[in-house]
Write a structure and sequence with these properties.
The chain contains 8 helices and 17 strands. By secondary structure, the chain is α/β, with parallel strands linked by helices. α2 links the parallel β4 and β5. The radius of gyration is 23 Å and the shape is elongated.
């Protein structure tokens, strides 16, 4: 297959020619990115509602048995390109390959996990296909009457949700941040139709890989994996306030996090920020300490199973999103909690 260029604006799109829901399955360090698997689960639900197939798109080198995995998570078909030119990831090359595949098969929808790589690739593909793209989706729905796919996301800083329809262009494109949707169950014996494709013409990356530097992962548990999170906000008053937050998290066998304001003040590193401009988390327990509860922060904890808020302001918005609330000074409340947990840990009543 050799297709180059892009779809000009003046060529009308017959939306009825487009079919199937696509998910770009990202491969990182020889494994499928967890965010892509999460997206497969939701995309399968969407594909069923529009009477379409779920198609996984994979681009890489020496993919081996990885091409079988999307089928285990709901994909009906896997279209893949296995080429030594993709041994090193370059956005312009992978993006061009996806554009060529989309122009040949004409998908109805194309969904991408909002990882660093996905955020880079998705706009490239949307631009070359002359279609729109909705970033940071929180939900994907299907109109029961028209069978149109509706992409839903919160406007920045707002409580309302924007419902976005793509009426005249295809594919419908959107990116979804990691952890917005749960992991689907894995069915080891489930198989998808496997289709191998080739791409001929690719843009030169204009870059050269000189050296790979391994980034050592922190010993601290990443917040997106934690079952218990204790999170601090501006109301802590200083960076020192996080010491007591970390201690409570440790006793709860969890990890610590913070709000955007805490990050902006330099009290906590950005990879521990929860919220619309940080990370979406799905813990069993989320303890919000001295966090006011702005819409951007609440967006990041909406999938938490239980939320406990500790704040000295009884009118703080965070209480509207909490299952349990404690009105009081965290400097008095948390030491009592720590004392209680220490006693339980040491077998004291």
């Amino acid at each position: 297959m050799s297709i180059s260029g892009q779809c000009p604006d003046w060529i009308p799109v017959n939306v009825n020619e487009h079919k199937n829901v696509w998910v770009y399955v990202e491969i990182e360090n020889g494994q499928i990115h967890e965010a892509s698997i999460q997206l497969l689960g939701k995309a399968k639900e969407v594909a069923s509602k529009v009477n379409s197939k779920l198609v996984a798109i994979m681009i890489g080198s020496n993919l081996g048995k990885l091409i079988d995995e999307p089928g285990m998570y709901g994909a009906d078909e896997v279209i893949y390109v296995d080429d030594s030119r993709f041994e090193t990831y370059y956005a312009i090359m992978s993006g061009e390959a996806m554009v060529q595949l989309a122009m040949k098969y004409k998908p109805e929808a194309f969904l991408v996990a909002g990882t660093m790589r996905g955020r880079e690739l998705a706009p490239y593909v949307a631009n070359h296909l002359r279609t729109g793209i909705t970033a940071d989706l929180t939900m994907i729905e299907v109109d029961e009457k028209t069978k149109e796919i509706i992409l839903i996301r919160p406007p920045f800083g707002a409580w309302q949700l924007a419902h976005i329809r793509t009426l005249r262009r295809r594919p419908v494109m959107g990116s979804v941040r990691p952890n917005v949707f749960p992991m689907p169950p894995k069915e080891e014996n489930r198989k998808a139709i496997i289709t191998k494709e080739t791409v001929d013409e690719l843009y030169e990356p204009g870059l050269e890989l000189i050296e790979r530097v391994e980034i050592k992962s922190s010993e601290e548990k990443p917040i997106e994996k934690a079952e218990v999170i204790v999170s601090g906000g501006k109301g802590l008053g200083s960076k020192d306030g996080f010491e007591i937050v970390k201690r409570l998290a440790e006793l709860l066998n969890g990890t610590y996090a913070g709000s955007r304001k805490a990050v902006d003040m330099g009290w906590i590193q950005h990879d521990r920020q929860v919220g619309q401009t940080g990370k979406t988390v799905r813990p069993n327990l989320y303890v919000a300490v001295a966090i006011s509860g702005a819409a951007q922060h609440v967006f990041g904890i909406r999938e938490a199973k239980r939320v406990i808020a500790i704040n000295n302001d009884p009118n703080a918005p965070i209480f509207e999103s909490a299952d349990y609330g404690v009105v009081g000074d965290y400097k008095q409340v948390i030491p009592e909690l720590i004392k209680l947990l220490d006693g339980i840990k040491n077998g004291k009543k």
